[in-house]
């Protein structure tokens, strides 16, 4: 179980390493690929726009019980994942107990969704903003009694196209 830091300005996917905030990854996709143990955390430390999606990078979870969170200053804004008009931003890869916290996800194509390949077991979305996103997930977000899907604490979805 470790923490993988991401920072667009100071990061480097070639030298990013676990548990060292001085050596962050540059992209969220590279950090996700490295986070392959249950309990891993992807910690985004800035408010940059990350042009990443399931079609432009490896935005695929490799372990259960992974958290993707923002720990920078909310006074400046959330980190933005711009999917660039792709069909999805994050491939949950049928993993369970995933937490998304403090993210701004935008620019999903018509008919697409923020998340791909997840039944929703244990999914928690907290303090996220989804903009120009036609849907949240494609597998109905059907959690279980023991692992419900939860959207809480001011998560908001906006799709200006109706």
Structure description:
- The chain contains one helix and 13 strands.
- It is 4% helix and 24% strand.
- It has a six-stranded parallel beta sheet, with helices on one face.
- The chain is globular and about 40 Å long.
- 38% of the residues are buried.
- The chain is mainly beta and 162 residues long.
Question: Could you give a quick summary of the protein structure above?
Answer:
The chain has 162 residues and is mainly beta. It has one helix and 13 strands, in the order βαββββββββββββ. Helix content is 4%, strand content 24%.
First-to-last CA distance = 41 Å
Characterize the biggest β-sheet: 6 strands, parallel
Structural class: mainly beta
Beta strands, count: 13
